[in-house]
Amino acid sequence: MTLISKSTNPTKNDKVHRVLLGKKQILVTEEEPLLIQLERAGIHVEYQCREGYCSSCSIKLLWGHVSYPFEPLAWVQSGYLLACCAIVKSDIEIAFFD
Amino acid sequence: MSYSTFNRKHFDSMKEPMFFGENVNVARYDQQKHPIFEKLIEKQLSFFWRPEEVDLSTDRKDFQRLEEHEQHIFLSNLKYQTLLDSVQGRSPNVALLPIVSLPELETWIETWSFSETIHSRSYTHIIRNIVNDPTKIFDDIVTNEEITKRADSVSIYYDRLIEMVNLYNTMGMGTFNVPGKGDIEISMPKLKKALYLTIASVNVLEAIRFYVSFACSFAFAERTLMEGNAKIIKLIARDEALHLTGTQHMLNLMASGKDDPEMAEIAAECQDEVRQIFIEAAEQEKEWATYLFKDGSMIGLNAQILGQYVEYITNVRMQAVGLETCFATKHNPIPWINAWLVSDNVQVAPQEAEISSYLVGQTDNNLDDSDFDDFDL
Ligand code: FES
Ligand SMILES: [Fe+2]
Ligand SMILES: [Fe+2]
Questions:
Q1: Region A64-69 average pLDDT
Q2: For residue range B4-40, what is the model confidence (pLDDT) as tens digits?
Q3: Helices B227-256, B261-292: inter-axial angle, 10-degree rounding
Q4: DSSP per residue, chain A
Q5: Are strands A92-95 and A16-21 parallel, antiparallel or unpaired?
Q6: CA B162 from chain center: how many Å?
Q7: Are strands A92-95 and A58-63 parallel, antiparallel or unpaired?
Q8: Which ligand 1 atom is nearest residue A74's CA?
Q9: Residue B164 class from Cβ within 10 Å (0-12 exposed, 13-18 middle, 19+ buried)?
Q10: Quick check: B332 contacting A, CB < 8 Å?
Q11: Which ligand is nearest to the CA of A80?
Q12: Do the Cβ atoms of B281 and B214 come closer than 8 Å?
């Protein structure tokens, strides 16, 4: 299954980024954290606190940049991101468990 | 080296390791070697709650209407949680305070332990409310074989560390014969290894062992049963999420060598043993699920689904401390649990706590289209 939103044209808005997840591609903005946008695209992501302190939403960041509006309390492993509070800053590729 | 409640040496606490450096003297928080522990303290304080604030009057009636095997599930989980929090309410203090070397970490340990005593008090609140004789329930915790088996595995690492630190504080380094236990070697690497394994086993206790019970409590609440209990469990789960982040930080800081280079070597050396601690705990929790459902499952949950959930959550927790995941279950078999675990609606009164997620295998005659809004394959 591939999800490509045709309604938004990335070239018109430089704040829209592509998130690659396996064969899926999801378009996200910098307005909200990644988690909520993935959920809206119908992708289940593990979560608990949704506030950056439990690390349940940790997913692999294969390449690309994310930033955190506040420093999360949970430890962020290198090569991972915390979906509940990460703001996507470039096109990125993510992965769940191997 | 004997412990002092106020170390008279003059030293720079910013240069001390988390553990096994100088005993802390001045409790100061204006400077912190690891500011994360100060942040955890602040967060934990902001979470403060009291069990008595949660009204359990409806739970009493609900409990009487539960089928016998459901009462068994409910009470067994309560007993197991009581055991876990009895251990957690004292052990971080007893085991870790004598060896901690940073004021912010010392205070985090005390704050953490204190919040566990609130959990313990909440179990008394719940038990008193649903049965006439709480003694029967509490007594069973020390006699029921299924529970005592677990008591052994949750306390063994703590107990060993405490014993070794006692020897270290009274006798110093060397090999000592302890009656009934044989020779025990005390050296810095041995002490650090005992500490590292203890922190790993505490991480497992808080990040995995509680979750079978959490799932059962929320499965009852999905049927609008025992909702007061579910509200308390939500508050406990919120605290536990913070506690597990505390031990994840300790483990990751140790493994990184940034805090204490020798600890990094020990962490690397212990990798397999730590993996084993996670795997063993997961297997024990799966066994526990089988025990819970021995006389019958509950709507929406059975031993198999719970077993898969244990595997899944174990993978999540292993990944968080940099270990390779080891179970085949890559998806959460009970995704509805997250809506209960999330803390943002913790303040909602129980009767309003309607969660629109679905329950695996639930038979519900009152479905309408909106019930499928959150359906997720
Ligand atoms: S959901 Fe807790 S850190 Fe993201
Ligand atoms: Fe607890
Ligand atoms: Fe805890």
A1: 97
A2: 999 999 999 899 999 999 999 999 999 999 999 999 9
A3: 150
A4: -----SS--GGG-TTEEEEEETTEEEEEESSS-HHHHHHHTT-----SSSSSSS-TTEEEEEES-EE-SS--SS---TTEEETTTPEE-S-EEEE---
A5: parallel
A6: 19
A7: antiparallel
A8: 3
A9: buried
A10: yes
A11: 1
A12: no
Of B233, B256, B237, B253, the C-alpha closest to B313 is: B237
Name the region of B240 (left: φ>0; alpha: ψ -120 to 50; beta: rest). Answer: alpha
Ligand 1 near A47 CB (within 6 A): yes
Looking at ligand 1, which residue's alpha carbon is closest to its atom 3?
A52
**What is the fold, at CATH topology level, of the domain defined by B35-341?**
Ribonucleotide Reductase, subunit A (1.10.620)
Place of tokens 């993996």: B275
For the cut 90, the answer to whether the pLDDT of residue B114 exceeds it is yes
- What b/e sequence results for B11-41 when a residue is b if at least 16 CB atoms lie within 10 Å of its CB, and e otherwise? eebeebbbbbbbbbbeeeeeebbbebbbbbb
pLDDT digits (tens, 9 = 90+) for B291-337: 999 999 998 899 999 999 999 999 999 999 999 999 999 999 999 99
- Catalytic residue check, B3: no
Q: Which atom of ligand 1 is nearest to the CA of A35?
A: 4
State both tokens at B373.
């809004």
Strands A24-29 and A16-21: antiparallel
Statement: residue B90 has pLDDT above 70: yes
- Residue A41 has a pLDDT of 96
Catalytic residue, from B123, B168, B309, B312: name it: B123
Across the interface, whether the CB atoms of A47 and B342 are under 8 A apart is answered yes
Question: Are the beta carbons of B217 and B119 closer than 8 angstroms?
Answer: no
Domain residue extents for chain B: 35-341
Nearest-CA neighbor of B238 among B124, B119, B85?
Answer: B119
Q: Which of A50, A54, A97 sits opposite B245 (nearest CB)?
A: A54
Beta pairing class for B182-186 and A80-82 = unpaired
B314 touches chain A (CB under 8 A): no
Q: Report the pLDDT value the prediction gives residue A38, as an integer from 0 to 100.
A: 97
Contact (CB<8Å) A44/B36:
no
> Encoding tokens for residue B231?
């509200």
